[in-house]
Fold Thiol:disulfide interchange protein DsbD N-terminal domain-containing protein.
Amino acid sequence: MRQTLTKSAAAAAALFAVAMPAPALSGAAEGDIVRIEVLDGGLTPRGTHLGALRITLQPGWKTYWRAPGDAGIPPSFSWRGARNVGELSIIWPAPEVFLTSGYRTIGYHDQLVLPVEITPETPGKPVRLKGRMQLGVCKDVCVPAELEFDHQLDSSAGRHPAIAAAMASRPWTAKEAGVRAASCSLHPTQYGMTVTARISMPSAGGEEIAVIEPGNPRLFAGETSTRREGGQLVAETEFLPADGNSYAIDRSKLRITVLGKNHAVDIQGCSAG
């Protein structure tokens, strides 16, 4: 099972060996392959601020989802310099599945709008969204990019169509998708832990691909195998410790995303099974 981790690391290294690390640029990667801007969405009925990071790629280029697959590089964020930000949550639109050098990767092509909802520390005062995003972008080759952004959100802004479209394309909740039950069984392996999820749910359409996230940054998740057994979707993956130490797995923290032809489904936690 250690070979799975080695294979993934080797694949990522091979993808990024074609380019030297990109410098930190304000708003755009070298050659304008990818650009970033902050969109204003105004205030929500709850009094939170709604904005978005719009990542625009040159035609044919793609970037990765938060769980990028066997050979992808997950995006990371720094919010250093942000002001009056109490809580911040990112709403991820449903991603696509790609094949990259024979490996399954998960992400977006051409453009990604990431809605960001912010609860200010001090209501009524301006919110400044500042930071940087590190991501991988791929076409025939893959290159790393680091993009900076700095924008004071406009609380008087109205509904932004791009933010609304991104919010509408988020995965369905378990309730919306008709998930009746989700249970997870755990089995120790030589190097980690196998997690088998059994989800009672209607089909999401076509070939269904599930992704199980550990909810613990110290755990590495391998590729998830997915199959149908009647009304149940069965998904299985192995979690491996990133630093060689053992860690407990909290079923309530597991996050299962099912990607189907018709829609995606976001399932938060599972019971023992």
In short: The longest helix spans residues 2-16. The chain has two helices and 21 strands. The CA atoms of residues 1 and 189 lie 8 Å apart. Confidence is low (pLDDT under 50) at residues 1-30.
